[in-house]
Amino acid sequence: MRVAFFLEIFYPEINGVITATLDLAKNLKALGHHALLVVPDNRKAERVREVEGIEVYRVPAVPFPLYPGMFITRPWDRGLLAKLREDRIDILHITGPWTMGWAGITMARKLGLPLVQTFHTMLGEDTYILYLVKFRFLLPLGRAFAWGMIDRYIGRSDLVTTPSRFARDELALRYPGKRLEHISNGIDFSRFRNAPSREEFLCAHPWFNHKTFLFVGRIGLEKSIDVLLRGFARAAARDPEIRLALVGDGPNRGELERLAEELGLAGKARFLGRILHEELLRSGLLHYARGFVTASVTENQPMTVIEAICCGLPLVTADVPGMRELAQGNALTCPPGDAEAFGDALARLAGDDGLHRELAEKSRVLAERFDGRTVAQTFLERYRELLRRP
Fold first, then answer.
1. For the chain, percent helix, then strand, then coil, each to nearest 5?
2. Which of 385, 373, 386, 383 is nearest to 24 (CA)?
3. Please, are residues 363 and 312 in contact by the beta-carbon 8 Å criterion?
4. In sequence order, what are the beta bridge partners of 333?
5. What span, in angstroms and rounded, lies between the C-alpha atoms of 129 and 47?
6. Cα→Cα distances 243→78, 181, 199, 275, Å
7. How far is CA 326 from the centre of its chain?
8. Which DSSP helix (H) or strand (E) runs through 6?
9. Which residues does 175 contact at the CB level (< 8 Å), separation at least 6?
C-alpha cells in the first residue's frame, strides 16, 4: 500500500493533527507500506526531506495572515502530480478542509484515486471562526462560509473518519447517508519509555513540585486558557504549593501571560513556550505532572490529552462531548467556562493522594485503546476496501 497524507500545518508548528498523522504514517511503514507527507512549504523553516523516516514533499505556499502557522497553497501543482505518479500512490488521505485538502481532492480526481479524509478539528466552532471574521456580529456569515467549505470536502471524500464518536455523530446529522467512521488517533507507546529519573528531572526543573499541573497545546483563544488561569488562581489561593506549566505557543500568548501576572501568578504559572515533540516526550513533564488540565471546549480527540493518558496522568477537563470519550473514570470534569469549578477540581486533585492514584490507574487502563499499530491496521483495512471498489 502506498499512501500520501496531506497536512495543512507542518513543522516547526506542532499540533495534534501532525502528531496523529505522523504516528499513522510511521506505523504503516513499520508494517511494510509506503507513506508520503505532503505539506506546505514554509520557506522560513528548515526544509527537511524526511521526518522520523517518512519522506516529506513540499508544495509552494504563502502565509495565511489571519491564522498564524497556516498557509495557502495552489490546488493544482504539476510537481506534486508528478511526485504522486512517481511514487505510484494508491490512496490520498487529507487531514483538513483547507487548501492542501483541496489539492488532495484535485489530485484524486486527476489520478482516479480514492480519497480519505480524517475530520480532526471542529472548524465550525465559533472560536475558530472568530480567527477569520474577528467580530462576533459576523459569526453567522462565518458559520455559513465554514460549513459551506466543509460541505465540499465531505462531499468529495470517499470515506470520512473521525477520531471521536462525538464528531462522527455530529457529521452524521449533517450528512445522512455519507460513509462516516470513528477511528481513534493512535500512539506509539515506545516513545514514552525514555523519561529521566525523577531526580534528574527535578535537577533540570527545580521549580517543579509534586503538585504541578500540565497544559500542552496551542496558546490561542480556542483553548480557553483564560478560564484555566482564573481557575488556577483560585486553586493557588487555597493551596500555595500548586503550580501550573503551560507548554506551547500561539497568537494569544502575550495577553495570557499578562493575565497571569494580573492574577498574581508570577512564579506559579510558567509559560514554557514551544517544545519539540520528541523533546517533550523525553523531558519527564508528562511523566511527573500531578495531572493534565485543559479548559478547551473545541476538542475532537486531542493528541495532547491522549499522550497524557498514556503517561498515566489524571485529567481535569471541561465537560464537553469531545472530551467525554477520554474522561472515563480518569478525570474530574467541570462545566464549560466555569473557572471556579476548575479551581476547585485542581485543589481537590492536588490535595487527595487517594483520588490521584485512582484516576491515574484508570488512565493507564484506558491507554490500551490507542495502540498506534492497531489503528494503522484498521486504516489499512479501509484503504483496501476502497481500492476494491470500482
1. 45, 20, 35
2. 373
3. yes
4. 317
5. 30
6. 52, 40, 18, 19
7. 14
8. strand 2-6
9. 154, 155, 160
Give the tens place of pLDDT for each residue, 3-40. 999 999 898 887 888 989 999 999 999 999 999 999 99
Block residue for cell numbers 497568537:
251
Closest by Cα among 293, 291, 272, 294 to 283: 272
The CA-to-CA distance between both ends of the chain, in Å, stands at: 17
User: Cell 449533517 sits at which residue?
Assistant: 174
Residue 268 and residue 241 in contact, taking contact as beta carbons nearer than 8 Å: no
Determine how many CB atoms are found less than 10 A away from the CB of residue 88. Answer: 8
CA–CA dist 81, 218 (Å, integer)? 33
Single out the residue of 142, 140, 167, 137 nearest to residue 154, CA to CA.
Answer: 167
This prediction's pTM: 0.73
Residue 96: C-alpha distances to residues 99, 113, 154, 168 (Å): 9, 18, 10, 15
Question: Could you tell me the three cell numbers for 169?
Answer: 455523530
Instruction: Please check whether residue 173 is in contact with residue 374, taking contact to mean a CB–CB distance below 8 angstroms.
Output: no
pLDDT tens sequence across 94-127: 998 889 999 999 999 999 999 999 998 765 565 6
Query: In order of start, what are the domains of the chain with their CATH numbers?
Result: 2-186+371-388 (3.40.50.2000), 189-370 (3.40.50.2000)
Cβ(344)–Cβ(205) below 8 Å: no
Residue labelled with grid coordinates 482564573: 230
Residue with cell 462516516: 180
